[in-house]
Amino acid sequence: MKGKIRNFERDNLAYMIDVTIVTCKKYLHNKEGNSYIHTIFLEYTLLKDALESKGISVKRTHWDNPDYDWSQTKAVVIRTVWDYFERFDEFNTWMIQAASVTNLINPLPLQQWNSHKFYLQQLQEKGVRIVPTEFVAKGFKTSLEEISVKRGWTHLVIKPAISAAAFHTYKVSAENRAAKEIVFQELLVSRDMLVQPFIETIVDKGEASLMVMNGTYTHAILKKAKQGDFRVQDDYGGTVHLYNPSKEEIEFAEYINTQCPVLPIYGRVDIVWDAAGKPMLSEIEFLDPELWIRNAPTTAEILAEGIAKAIC
After folding, report:
1. Residue 104 Cα distances to 99, 114, 298, angstroms
2. Both ends of the chain: CA-CA distance in Å?
3. What is the pLDDT of residues 227-270, one digit of tens each?
4. What is the pLDDT of residue 225?
5. Are residues 277 and 226 part of one domain?
6. Fewest CB atoms within 10 Å of the CB: 46, 108, 123, 312?
7. Is residue 120 part of a domain?
8. With contact defined as beta carbons under 8 Å apart, do 150 and 167 qualify?
9. Last-in-domain residue among 142, 175, 197
10. b/e 180-190 (16+ beta carbons within 10 angstroms → b)
11. Is the pLDDT of residue 114 over 50?
């Protein structure tokens, strides 16, 4: 009997995958002529090659694959799950179930904390300079007019606490406030919301993304909105440029990583600037960050090193 048990364990280990990289179903397969998905596969290939060069086996699937046995992988690296915020309850259930049988990278407590933007309030309480924010809990009775008067903000931005890619993110001015008030109240019925002043520097300077891996800054890019828009995401015509952050900005990004409830293996710190040019935290991404590894291919090796240490 003991011999049979040992053989069973040996056979199971033969099928054990070291790392499963997770995406969403929409981006599971490459598509001819689709430059957006081609970029996703380019970054996946860079990371896969870096991991395999260390003798680490790699598979890739979508997070809601009902036929995938998560217990047969040593670690799950969450990457381009860019539908999670539209199906968050399902996604959170999957994360919990996966974490019960394997290791999530980044770890589950960090992923759950980072999935809800009220983490900004906790970081602010620790002394991190964030974009000024009114945190409005679901169902709370307030209005954009009330917040505007209370805070002295003329132009606002509203967004859900669980969101990505500018999902339900709107700029509010005196001219459209009545219409956006209706939208805000509708969203507030079912969602926690953030209300922020519109940061004017995002129009001419943009938003910088600083990548931090294994606690250390690696590279950065600058995102700029298209003419007449404020959203820097490429989904809305935003463009990406090389960026060399200042020493202050690098230290700011690395310090923010140390203030998280669990130290991240990889992530992204997005910053904007106040009128005096001082950096403020816009958001941090440890759940599904675009990392622009394609702009700095050697960082795939750095990320692979962090993953390798996590599964040792």
Report:
1. 6, 14, 23
2. 30
3. 655 554 555 556 888 999 999 999 999 999 999 999 999 999 99
4. 72
5. yes
6. 312
7. no
8. no
9. 197
10. beeebeebbee
11. yes
Show the domain range for 91. Answer: 2-114+307-311
Q: Which residues pair with 197 in a beta bridge?
A: 156
Tokens 């710190």, residue located:
269
DSSP notation for 36-84:
HHHHHHHHHHHHHHHHHTTT--EEEEETT-TT--GGGEEEEEE---TTG
Taken in order 140, 145, 146, 148, is the CA torsion positive or negative? Answer: positive
Interior CA angle at 226 toward 213 and 144, to 5°?
A: 85
CATH number reported for the structural domain that contains residue 79 in this entry: 3.40.50
Judge residue 246's burial from the number of C-beta atoms within 10 Å of its C-beta, 0-12 exposed, 13-18 middle, 19 or more buried.
Answer: exposed
Run of H or E residues at 281: strand 279-285
Q: What is the CATH number of the domain that holds 249?
A: 3.30.470.20
DSSP conformational letter for 226: P
Which amino acid appears at position 91 of this protein? F
Amino acid code (one letter) for 262: V
Q: Which residue has the tokens 């309030």?
A: 121
Residue 235 lies in a domain: yes
pLDDT for 179-192, tens place per residue? Answer: 989 999 999 999 99
Higher-pLDDT residue of 86 and 142 is 142
pLDDT higher than 50, residue 134: yes
Does the pLDDT of residue 44 top 60, yes or no?
yes
Min mean pLDDT across 3-7, 12-16, 100-104, 209-213 is at 3-7
Predicted pLDDT of residue 312: 78
Please check the confidence at residue 50 and state whether its pLDDT lies above 50: yes
- d(CA 291, CA 312) in angstroms, rounded, equals 24
Give CA–CA dist 254/212, Å, rounded: 7
Taking phi first (over 0 means left), then psi (-120 to 50 degrees means alpha), and beta for anything else, what does residue 127 get? left
